[in-house]
Amino acid sequence: MTTTSVARALDLEGIARIRADFPILNRVMRGGCQLAYLDSGATSQKPLAVLDAERAFLTTSNGAVHRGAHQLMEEATDAYEQGRADIAAFVGADGDELVFTKNATEAINLVAYALGDNRFERAVGPGDVIVITELEHHANLVPWQELARRTGATLQWYGVTDDGRIDLDSLQLDERVKIVAFTHHSNVTGALAPVDELVARAKAVGALTLLDACQSVPHQPIDFHALGVDFAAFSGHKMLGPTGIGALYGRRSLLNALPPFITGGSMIETVTMAETTFAPAPQRFEAGTPMTSQVVGLAAAARYLGAIGMPAVQAHEQTLVAAALAGLAEVPQVRIIGPLTTQRRASPVSFVLDGVHAHDVGQVLDDEGVAVRVGHHCAAPLHRRFGISATARASFAVYNTLDEVDRLVAGVRRAVEFFS
After folding, report:
1. Is 378 an annotated catalytic residue?
2. Assign residue 410 a region: left if phi > 0, alpha if psi is -120 to 50, beta otherwise?
3. What's the whole-number mean pLDDT along residues 378-399?
4. By CB distance 3.0 to 4.6 Å, which of 10, 302, 365, 370 could disulfide with 316?
5. In this predicted structure, what is the pLDDT of residue 2?
6. Ranges for the Aminotransferase class V domain (predicted)?
């Protein structure tokens, strides 16, 4: 892939060039069908540029970051910090506002833990309120339940409308609210959150905001500064990058005010037998040996997506979502869980089939080489809101095609025929 040839437009030729960067997409699955990978909402496939970047680092420059003074250490440190700068630029942040974690779940837990520490002047305590939404992935639900349990705060939430969006009329905020945490794109309904409105409501009562951006960073242009959130979490493996790497964005003043989450080496300023002082952010939150090669790989993924152009990525994926919604709507037995149009919604597309369990739908699709996720997608309360235990979920990425959407719809029709 070249920057100029693909960035102009994602036409068939451009998509073909992108797909050539993902050898796994050529795999023939059991039954003799070529893989149609429609599960990027769970984890994305990795382009050669990412694999090559990690391999090159490990075979030429592997060393301990921020330790010692030999050449390999210097090269490793430079690669790590350049990776931080590249990834931060990709999401509209400054380098010192980006903390590396092992995944987005850890990033959210970092904030939830720190907000319960009374060394933080805006710490959550008894009588305070934590606000989330009924749309949340468990990673943006359970940490807040635990914070409420530890501190004596109360957990409240915005409900969900029948078409799978945040119900802004379901909750009124007041000055007791200390944090409002919400997903940017639902990992079940695909609905896009009204970020501006939620941030404005939080600011009006003096509350902080945290954005779960796992499902948005890989699929649309993101600028955390412009969004105005205080914190945001995203993962590497969902944006064409390696596993074992995530990131927390935090406003500089807040990161420097928060106490550390995990302590040990690398995050200290001074240590005596009696006490320790801590390094400034982001190093304060990166105790121990970091995931250096994964940072290098994630930076390569950010550059890869940036070369394509995130507006082009978003437009292409919206075409896929529109085709999936239209195709599945023609199957009478299908019920879409989420908005029925592409207005303020994106991938994924989750659905149920009358009289057929989602796992059975997934098995039929798998027999056809079509990979989707089935289950509650770590969003059990949301599924209960819709009176169901599980859905089948197709989620798209820049490397998917309309032909693969057609195979999805054909597979669903086959499931209807088989189980009728």
Report:
1. yes
2. alpha
3. 98
4. 10
5. 40
6. 37-408
Give me the chain's average pLDDT, please.
97
Beta strands at 129-133 and 36-37: parallel, antiparallel or unpaired? unpaired
Backbone dihedral region for residue 270 (phi beyond 0: left; psi -120 to 50: alpha; all else: beta): beta
pLDDT in tens, 126-136: 999 999 999 99
User: Which one of 35, 123, 326, 378 is the catalytic residue?
Assistant: 378
**Omega into 282 within 30° of 0, i.e. cis?**
yes
Question: To 10 degrees, what angle do helices 48-60 and 292-308 make?
Answer: 150
Which one, of 83, 66, 82, lies nearest residue 74 by Cα? 66
- Please indicate, yes or no, whether the overall pTM of this predicted structure exceeds 0.90: yes
* Alpha carbon separation from 235 to 125, 161, 295, 321 (Å, rounded): 29, 27, 11, 22
Determine the Cα–Cα distance for residues 118 and 121; give it in Å rounded to an integer.
Answer: 7
Architecture of domain 3-34+309-419: Alpha-Beta Complex (3.90)
Helix (H, G, I), strand (E, B) or coil at 248: strand
Quote the pLDDT of residue 8. Answer: 43
Domain ranges of the chain: 3-34+309-419, 52-306
Task: Note whether 80 and 298 are within 8 A (CB).
Answer: no
Tokens of 416: 């209807």
Q: Give the residue from 243, 313, 346, 234 showing the smallest Cα distance to 1.
A: 313
Q: Please tell me the distance from the alpha carbon of residue 22 to that of residue 343, in angstroms, as a whole number.
A: 30
Judged by DSSP in three states, 268 sits in strand
Amino acid of residue 42:
A
Q: What is the mean pLDDT of residues 300-309?
A: 98
pLDDT (tens digit, 9 = 90+) per residue, 9-48?
489 899 999 999 999 999 999 989 999 999 999 999 999 9
Q: What is the pLDDT of residue 420?
A: 84
Q: Which CATH number fits domain 52-306: 3.40.640.10, 3.40.50.300, 1.10.287.130, 3.20.20.30?
A: 3.40.640.10
DSSP string, 150-216: HHT-EEEEE-B-TTSSB-GGG----TTEEEEEEESB-TTT-BBP-HHHHHHHHHHTT-EEEEE-TTT
Q: C-alpha distances in angstroms, 337 versus 135, 327, 332, 412?
A: 12, 15, 14, 15
